[in-house]
Sequence to fold (205 residues):
Amino acid sequence: MGHFKAFLAALIAIFIATGVSAQNEYTIRNGDVINVEVLEDSALNRSVVVLSDGRISFPFAGTLRAQGRTVPEIQAAITDAIASNFSIPPTVFVSVQPRPVVPRAPSAPPPPVTMAIYFLGEVNSPGLVEMEPGTRFLQAMAQSGGLTRFAADKRVQLRRTDPHTGETRLFEINYRAILDGAEISNNITLQEGDVIIVPERRLFE
Fold:
């Protein structure tokens, strides 16, 4: 029995090591969701999405290039970028959420037409959300899982990239005003690939 337990423990260790190695060798791509944990400040823990330009946004670090980097490389980049805000070098852990694999049966009907909308920043459920064409900003926000207590709800950003020219337009939306009914004209109809970013609230904001 003792030999069996030792064999089982060794087998589990091999599986764990294999998973860590796979994460370390994985090259980050656009659309990936990256989990970031900072041991010294749990308020910074969050999931961030790699945008279409290959970048991510993280508090204290600003915008960082992620596409084409490995997990250890982006972990080191975040650590270096936020280090000046800590008395000792912070301990940062980075992992990549696996992309869902949905098996398709040959006879299955085609999936309904949807568009991809990305949520970043101070929302409870960041990442990619598939929505019906014609969805408006207010409806999309209702599907984001709500805002965190750090959210600057008066300065929500909508970034829209033209797929033909690559030009990005930035809309700043007062989400709180829309909820109050004061700026319902800003309830924009969303388009494929739109990115909604909820920044952190400033001090005394």
Remarks:
- Helices lie at 2-25, 71-82, 137-142, 175-179.
- Residues 8-20 have pLDDT under 50 and may be disordered.
